[in-house]
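INFO worker-7 received task bundle
INFO bundle size: 2
INFO processing item 0
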Amino acid sequence: MSRKGKVLVAMSGGIDSTVTALMLHDQGYEVVGITMKTWDYSASGGGKKETGCCNLDSFNDARMAAVEHGFPHYILDIRDEFGSFVVDNFVDEYLAGRTPNPCVLCNTHIKWRALAKRADALNCEYIATGHYASVYQHENGRFVVTKGVDETKDQSYVLWGLQQDLLSRTLLPLGGYRKTAIRQMAHDFGYPELAKKSESYEICFVPDNNYRGFLKRKVEGLEEKVAGGYFIDRAGNILGQHKGYPFYTIGQRKGLDIALGRPAYVTSIDPETNTVVLGEEEDLEKEQMLVGKVNMIKYDRLDAPMEALTKIRYKDKGSLSGISQKDNEVRVQFYEKAKGIAPGQSAVFYEGNDVIGGGIIQKAVF
């Protein structure tokens, strides 16, 4: 038995998760590797060759690293859990006129819970992943997600949904390193090919990055059901026909296939009337938004309004704002108007580098 304890490490076969496992192994943890199969690429119908974390080569790479360093490795099939929750939610959100963030749901509701369940079965005290973020215990006793030191790779945004019982046993060893250091570690561990391995930023079940095609394949007759809707302006004037409201997102400018003689942006979507509102770029700027399905991390709840940096998308630099909580909803008042607030996306609140909490954007106001 290791004096540091036993840890179940999620291994995708890529550089980050492999270095995570080998680093913890070197530090004296008793490591167990696990690779989760979430999706069959053939089920997407996109016709693109398997890439990323759910293909046989990645499974073999993860297993080989485990074998060579003398720790066990398992493959876990969670396709049913993943499909019934993440994929169905993805489809339902677009049909509701919202823009979902499936990677957040996958991390917080599927992968971490699946890891914790299997960690219990394997008597592992800890679970670990290769995310660029860190977890520490605050003086108030709560476990807090904080940004990774490499701002270009920081993944704290996608971890806002993790609850305290999961954070209390989570190890994120890459949070204190830059990507260049991790590449060097891969070389030092004897895996120079990992440093050259391409990284996928696509949604795993939409390998061709064409979510519209995916929706058409998943929902029989969708094109016919939503065809014939109208583009309208803020006053309700008809500007032209569109291809169906689920195929557009807030802030979209390209691919509208409508000529107005000026740039036009999707500013709102109404699924009930199958209308898509087009406007100017400034129409995307809003002063407030409401965020629901909130999970608080650093504090149990906000008893009083506070200042925070609010991010409304993964690559957003964040905007200073005042936030206040009522029940399971947070109202955000931006100090300067924020552009492109999309219902269905995640909003994450930061105090310095710490994640205060996050939730799902319900609607923009004003």
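INFO item 0 finished
INFO processing item 1
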Amino acid sequence: MNIAIAQSGGPTCAINASLVGVFRQGLLTEKIDAIFGSVNGIEGMIGDELINLKSILRTNEDLELLRQTPSTMLGSCRYKLPDAETDPTVYEKILHTLQTHRIDIMIYIGGNDSMDTVVKLSSYLKKNGSDIRVIGVPKTIDNDLPITDHTPGFGSAAKYVAVTVQEIIRDSSVYSIPSVTIIEIMGRHSGWLTASSCLLRVNDEEAPHLIYLPEADFSAERFIEDVRREMAKHKAVVVAVSEGVSVDAEGLEAFQSGATDVFGHKYLSGIGKYLERLVVDKIGCKVRSVELNVMQRCSTHICSKTDLDEAEEIGQAGLRAALDGHTGMMMYFRRVSNAPYAVTIEMTDAGNVANMEKKFPSEWITPDGNQVTDAAIPYFIPLIQGEVDICMKNGLPVHFQRPLQMH
């Protein structure tokens, strides 16, 4: 049989590790012949743009380098499949590609929108009498997929956030004058990444002094009160804020593009600049905003070994599930314990995940909505553990370069 792998959604440090996991499991399975990669996610299936991965991943060194290379080697997409009942044309093209290349299994690596593709495509194939199986492997730095304890990509992003915030703390503390530093962190409707900055407490850091998440009510007036209160205690106040925090005041729109993607998600960056202007107007002290933006997605130089290891393992498990006859499912982690840290890999119907979001627990947010409690720390700590021996050349990390024909 032949199999195909596709990657979708935003880049992460670990999504290529999941691809490597599927590929390695494919090599171990005697009945699997060709292993195809779909260029730019489901778009490659629609346009019959596949590459033979065995032709570019020839050695174990190739696999190890790809494993520690961030972003999506196969390219990605944000493509929303239409309803098959009203618009079957796209599905017919996908089925034609699958049949042309004699593909029996497709592994789709992505987030909650990608699981929508798994649900729709597996349902279409079943209804049309096809035995082709489709399995979802999770990924997202946002950690907002339901069912799974956490998602591949999150641990490395959380580690980057904590390390970067710590470095900003050092930078902000050198001057004698009072200051406020506002750090804007990704998180549309869930604040997992921003909340992970609380990890610095385990190394005796007091900052960030304030943490704001989309899950808590936010008031611009209360924000200024919070900052004033912290300035009475600290010369340099550091604030971590999720990009998706909902502000109950006019003016934020001026700092945002207003654009949306095909799934209707708004591009939300701008809250940091808005709050910077608010502090200038209301307090008048030295203030700076820092937008981490995409940097937190692909920073393998400070990635989590646990994250990459688990990403590869869940990729392997996804292919094994398909080989066992499952389809329309997503693999997920179930945490067994925090200390010692242990998880199992299980599966759930992808419909339980598609187009849904897991919020940061309200019980881990302080009553004032401006900080994360210590109860969250045991959840985060295991996910950032371990360092990867990154391949370096000329003092810089080496990345696996995807084939020229894919550019």
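INFO item 1 finished
INFO post-check item 1: Residues 243 and 271 are 6 Å apart (CA to CA).
INFO post-check item 1: The radius of gyration is 22 Å.
INFO worker-7 idle
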